[in-house]
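chain below, 198 aa
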Amino acid sequence: MGAEAYDDQWARRAAAGESVHGEADLIERLLRGVDHVPRVLDAGCGTGRVAIRLAERGVDACGVDVDDALLERARTKAPTIPWHRGDLATLRADEVPGPFDAIVLAGNVMIFVAPGTEGAVLHNLASRLAPGGLLVAGFQLRSTARAGALTADAFDALARDAGLAPHARFSTWEGAPFDGGNYLVTVDQRTRGQVSKR
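prediction:
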């Protein structure tokens, strides 16, 4: 699906009265009480839907994605937001540096990274979180997603190895409790200690 077609689907859903900003809503709720302008990275940002919505709400947002066409669309829609090209598994420390109060991986990003790089992705992102910062990821679980996708237990193990601790778990971006179904929104918090070495 091209960048324009991707955006058009969200516009159609919004025009039909559907809420299409659950990710931004959840991030905003999670960061309530932060005593400064929160800084948020939209990791795997695509055409920038989540980062743009957060920026409209006063968040210091930026995005990173590996796809040039999607990033060009994001830049066209919101030229004042910093958009970065990069692979989440191989970002250097000086690329899209933190600290971030939250990093969001919406749109099934974790099951579309290159197989076998999930741990590297979480390590790279966790290292950019401020102490106590939140990593929020939503994705289909293996039972219904493409072959090789993550299970909740596998994600939890990778998150622990990256220095993240469980904070909250939902089955939707709107915050419905996780009931063991086929979609997981997991909120993990960077511990105050060092991120573990690989």
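The CA atoms of residues 11 and 21 lie 11 Å apart. The first helix runs from residue 3 to 15.
thats it, cya
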